[in-house]
Design a protein that fits this description.
Number of strands: 4
Subcellular location: Nucleus, Nucleolus
InterPro entries: SSU_processome_Utp11 (IPR007144)
Shape: flat
Protein name: U3 small nucleolar RNA-associated protein 11
Helix content: 40-55%
Number of helices: 5
Order of helices and strands: HHHEEHEHE
Pfam families: Utp11
GO biological process, one term: rRNA processing
Length: about 150
Amino acid sequence: MSSLRNAVSRRAHKERSQPEARRKFGFLEKHKDYVERAKAFHKKEDTLRKLKEKASFRNPDEFYYKMIKSKTVGGVHKSESDTKQYTHEELVLMKTQDSGYVFQKIQSEKKKIEKLNSMLHSLDSQLTNKHIYYAEDRFVLPALRSSTRYFFL
C-alpha cells in the first residue's frame, strides 16, 4: 500500500507572502532563497579553505622567471607588458616581409589551380563507353536495334 500512497501526487506546500505591514523591514527571505545563499556561502568558504591549504604547502624557495617580470601593487600582482615596442624601420621591414610571403602564397595557389585545370580537360568530352552486341545474322540485327539503344556490330 505504501507504493500506492507514494504514487499519488500531493499538494505542494507554498510559503506565505510577506504581510504588507512588514514590507518596511525589507525583503522576507524564503527557504529557497536561504538554500541558494547558503550554497554560495559554503562554496566561497571551500574556495578560501583550498587557497589557504595551497598557500601553506607552498615551497618558499620556489622560483619562476615570471616572478621577476611581475610586481605587486597594493597586494595585487601586475605583470609587465610583454608586447615589444618596435622601431619604425623594424615595422616597415616586417610589413614588406609579410607582403612578400602573401605574394609567394598567391603564386603557389595559382600554380595549383593551373595544375588542376589541366587535369580537367578530359572531363569536357562525352563518355565513349558503349555496350557492343554482336548479332548472329543480319536478319536479327534490325529487331535488336529497334528494341535497345546500344551499338551493334
